[in-house]
């Protein structure tokens, strides 16, 4: 839905604990106000989405309640004043206007309770490890994709923190190594924006555009272990073909499994989720499948998350000076070796000698 927003629009969302990736997507639309039916921060953990929006100057109204969806529709003109939302001069909803101090206070309170959330996360992870342990040891029923992986690298692109910046940093790697480009849902749009066409799109198909789905990539729909694949209906409605991949893991884990089982030489991951806040942002109560999949793919995996912060190459002045001198030297040699130029220079020297009296 974010893809439909314009700078003149006001976004009305129902998103408790707004995560950083969603906030960044909202910022890209240049909108100036966001109204949340739920709480931007419930205090469960220190999510950074509302802080990102507010720092950029976005007007935030918190907890207006679900009734607003019954009173407003897409395209309605509304007025916002001191936390109240007006339509045709009447108040249709009201909430709390968030300022920077309030958001920072909420974040500080959430940090104090993070230990409890960590304990719940660890327990949930251990519980699911018992149920999902077959991921690490059993060969899954991999779909028969046409893309050939043997002897090639695979680049898995996920909509995570700084994934676009990391992808930009890897453009030389992509150009030189020509890896298999595997996009997890919305990662396909990031690849297209960067000038690359994904070979495979894998996921629930809930955050990828129709344009990306129609780009010619093979489509692999993530299904539950019972065979239910909610994303297949969208693919069918678009008249496209797809494969079904059943597994009890996240879509990004599934992408790594696909590449691994198909014999890829190396898996390079961008935007994947690795720490507690990222998993909670994603709505995951544990990381069992991620732990097991990374345990399985082992040394074939290179996590390129944050690579854009690792090193920024900049030309040194000495290198530029050498380049300029080399160009001038080459230019001078070419001029001197040209007969016409040599004749002109000889004539010029004779004139100079006559002028100064030699």
How many distinct helices?
16
What is the percent of helical residues?
40-55%
Counted beta strands? 14
Determine the N-to-C terminus distance.
84 Å
SSE string = EHEHEHEEEEHHHEHHEHEHEHEHEHHEHH
User: Which spans of ≥5 residues are poorly predicted at pLDDT below 50?
Assistant: none
Order of strands in the sheet with the most strands? 12-11-10-9-8-13-14
Could you please describe the fold and organization of this structure?
The model has no long low-confidence stretch (mean pLDDT 86). The chain has 16 helices and 14 strands. Strands 12-11-10-9-8-13-14 form a 7-stranded parallel sheet, sandwiched between helices. It is α/β, with parallel strands linked by helices. The longest helix has 21 residues.
Keywords for this entry:
four-stranded mixed beta sheet; 16 helices; alpha/beta; single chain; seven-stranded parallel beta sheet; 16% strand
Topology:
Blueprint: E1 11-13, H1 20-28, E2 33-36, H2 49-55, E3 59-62, H3 68-71, E4 79-81, E5 84-87, E6 90-94, E7 96-98, H4 100-112, H5 114-132, H6 134-137, E8 153-157, H7 163-169, H8 171-177, E9 180-184, H9 187-193, E10 200-203, H10 210-213, E11 218-223, H11 232-237, E12 243-246, H12 251-261, E13 266-270, H13 276-281, H14 288-297, E14 301-303, H15 317-337, H16 339-356
Parallel strand pairs: 1-2, 2-3, 8-9, 8-13, 9-10, 10-11, 11-12, 13-14
Antiparallel strand pairs: 3-7, 4-5, 5-6
Helix pairs in contact: 1-2, 12-14
């Amino acid at each position: 839905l974010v893809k439909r927003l314009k700078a003149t629009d006001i976004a009305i969302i129902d998103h408790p604990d707004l995560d950083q990736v969603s906030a960044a997507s909202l910022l890209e639309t240049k909108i100036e106000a966001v109204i949340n039916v739920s709480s931007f921060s419930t205090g469960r953990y220190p999510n950074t989405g509302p802080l990102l929006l507010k720092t950029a100057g976005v007007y935030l109204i918190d907890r207006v309640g679900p009734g607003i969806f019954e009173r407003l529709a897409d395209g309605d003109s509304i007025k916002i004043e001191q936390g109240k939302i007006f339509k045709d001069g009447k108040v249709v909803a009201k909430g709390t206007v968030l300022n920077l101090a309030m958001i920072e206070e909420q974040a500080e309170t959430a940090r104090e309770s993070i230990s409890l959330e960590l304990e719940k996360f660890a327990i949930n992870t251990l519980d699911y490890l018992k149920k999902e342990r077959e991921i690490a040891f059993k060969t899954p029923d991999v779909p028969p994709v046409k893309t050939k992986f043997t002897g090639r690298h695979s680049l898995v692109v996920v909509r995570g923190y700084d994934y676009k910046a990391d992808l930009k940093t890897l453009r030389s790697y992509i150009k030189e190594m020509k890896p298999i480009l595997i996009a997890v849902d919305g990662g396909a749009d990031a690849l297209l924006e960067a000038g690359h066409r994904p070979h495979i799109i894998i996921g629930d198909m809930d955050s990828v555009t129709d344009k990306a789905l129609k780009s010619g990539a093979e489509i692999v729909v993530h299904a539950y272990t019972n065979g239910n694949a909610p994303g297949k209906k969208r693919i069918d409605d678009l008249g496209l073909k797809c494969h079904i991949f059943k597994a009890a893991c996240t879509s990004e884990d599934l992408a790594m499994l696909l590449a691994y089982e198909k014999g890829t030489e190396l898996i390079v991951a961008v935007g994947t989720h690795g720490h507690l806040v990222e998993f909670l942002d994603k709505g995951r109560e544990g990381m069992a499948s991620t732990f097991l999949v990374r345990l399985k793919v082992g040394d074939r995996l290179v996590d390129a998350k944050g690579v854009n912060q690792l090193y920024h190459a900049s030309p040194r002045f000495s290198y530029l000076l050498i380049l300029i001198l080399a160009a001038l030297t080459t230019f001078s040699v070419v001029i001197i070796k040209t007969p016409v130029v040599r004749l002109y220079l000889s004539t010029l020297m004779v004139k100079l000698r006559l002028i100064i009296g030699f």
